[in-house]
Amino acid sequence: MEYCFKKRGIDMGILVDAQSICKDYGNFALKDISFKIESGNITGFLGRNGAGKTTTIKSLLNLITIDKGTIKLFSESASIDFSKIGVVFEECNYFNNFTVKEIEIMQKKICKNWDQNLFAEMTTQFNLERNLQASKLSQGMKKLLCLSVVMSSKPSLLILDELSSGLDPNMRVETLQILRDFVKIPEHAILFSTHIMEDVVKIADQIIIVKNGSIVLDESKEQLLLREAKNEHINEIEKLEKIFFQYTDSSYKR
């Protein structure tokens, strides 16, 4: 199924512009995190556990106060309309006390851009029963429920933290296709963190790798795969895994 995500009348080139973000927790710090995400772009945000991916995402969403740096979303640094942003975190437990039907009723009341038809289509595709309470779902199915909610809210920017972990192969394929459809509209973009290299190879345009709170690589996937390991007879997933280890594991021999 191909989903049609309608424009919201937003004309933009750079959806995310993060410059020199710093946040010091004492035992861990983000150090001069800088990157941009252009409209029509899917950016894979990679790093080992504890590298700073989730902290960076929380910084973008103003869930933590940064010590230094600037963040502009949709070319705005203040009074950001967060209805333009759809977020799915790795832990999706915030709808646990509601059924799918109750979530639909609630979102219809509070979300000005709510697309009831899209929500019905996505929850049907994901086999989410309307009278089933979200707490009864597996963690993977909770993520699909959250994705259905945020997509139906008609955002322009999706920020996804480990969305595909916990999904079975069929659901992963269907979910990746939905993300491809989403960025067919130029004014849309996606930032997604993952440990699944196959997903990055399949849908990412740009790859950012974070290590110990710093960005160690920011490059287009196409250029990166051409530049690295170009003489080796390995597939693209294996190439990307090798590149990931080169940039994140100090003991790895290039």
TrEMBL record:
Annotated ranges, domain ABC transporter: 10-237
Protein name as annotated: ABC transporter ATP-binding protein
InterPro entries reported for this sequence: AAA+_ATPase, ABC_transporter-like_ATP-bd, ABC_transporter-like_CS, ABC_Transporter_VariousFunc, P-loop_NTPase
Keyword ATP-binding: yes
Xref: CDD domains: ABC_DR_subfamily_A (cd03230)
Database matches in SUPFAM superfamilies: P-loop containing nucleoside triphosphate hydrolases
Record's keyword annotation contains Cell membrane: no
Highest taxon in the source lineage: Bacteria
One Gene Ontology molecular-function label: ATP hydrolysis activity
Signal sequence, renumbered to the chain: none
